[in-house]
Amino acid sequence: MNKGKIFRKNPAVTTRARKNEELTLLNAETAEIVILNFVAAYIWSMIDGKKTFNTIVGILHQKFPDVSIDQIKRDSEQTIEELASRRFIL
Fold first, then answer.
1. How many domains does the chain have?
2. 15, 38, 53, 84: which could form a disulfide with 21 (CB 3.0–4.6 Å)?
3. What is the DSSP annotation of 5-69?
4. Can you give the pLDDT at residue 19?
């Protein structure tokens, strides 16, 4: 993954809040649905067409200082790659 890449949300994706701060995403182009847990939903909220991967990781590390930076990088990369591969983010 290019850590300096700036991702943006696919405009064909709609969202719906769920219990426990989870989020449901629907991609109208593919009719695919994904449910994001709290952390993945927080990552989703930061994908704004301005922040790089490294910026997102830094913000997550500030919010969750007890989690190692390496763990945050791995989890963030996995989440973003999954969303990108399924065209929820571009």
1. 1
2. 38
3. -B--B-TTEEEEE-GGG-EEEEETTTTEEEEE-HHHHHHHHH-SSS-BHHHHHHHHHHH-TTS-H
4. 87
In a domain, 2, yes or no: no
Nearest by Cα to 74 from 63, 82, 66: 82
Structural domain contains residue 79: yes
> Within a 10 A sphere around the Cβ of 46, how many other Cβ atoms?
15
Rounded Cα distance between 38 and 34, Å, is 13
CATH of residue 27's domain is 1.10.10.1150
pLDDT digit string (tens) for 21-45?
Answer: 899 999 999 999 999 999 999 999 9
Rounded Cα distance between 15 and 82, Å, is 17
